[in-house]
């Protein structure tokens, strides 16, 4: 993430995340875990491998959290 180490301590930095998981319940749980932190923001999600590249190009996430075994 692009963190400014000189920013005030109370500043909020959210790393944009693309979440890729084919099981909706797991994807929802991971999204909730990530968004309950002050560090991550899920900006896009999908359960389909064919959508990953286009979403990454459109949304420009800093992190792609990818399930390596998609159905």
Account of the 3D structure:
The protein is α/β, with parallel strands linked by helices and 71 residues long. The chain is built from 2 helices and 3 strands. It has helices at 24-35, 52-59; strands at 15-20, 40-46, 63-66. It has a 3-stranded parallel β-sheet, with helices on both faces. It is flat, with a radius of gyration of 13 Å. The N and C termini lie far apart (30 Å). 7% of the residues are buried.
* Percentage of residues assigned to helices: 25-40%
The ordered string of helix (H) and strand (E) elements is: EHEHE
In the predicted model, the low-confidence regions spanning at least 5 consecutive residues are 1-5
Count every beta strand, where a strand is a DSSP E run of 2 or more residues: 3
Strand content: 15-25%
Residue-averaged pLDDT: 85
Report the major sheet.
3 strands, parallel
- What is the count of helical runs? 2
Task: Give a concise summary.
The protein is of the alpha/beta class and 71 residues long. The chain is 28% helix and 24% strand.
Break the fold down into its secondary structure elements and pairings.
Layout: E1 15-20, H1 24-35, E2 40-46, H2 52-59, E3 63-66
Parallel strand pairs: 1-2, 1-3
Structural descriptors:
3 strands, 71 residues, disordered N terminus, three-stranded parallel β-sheet, alpha/beta, 2 helices
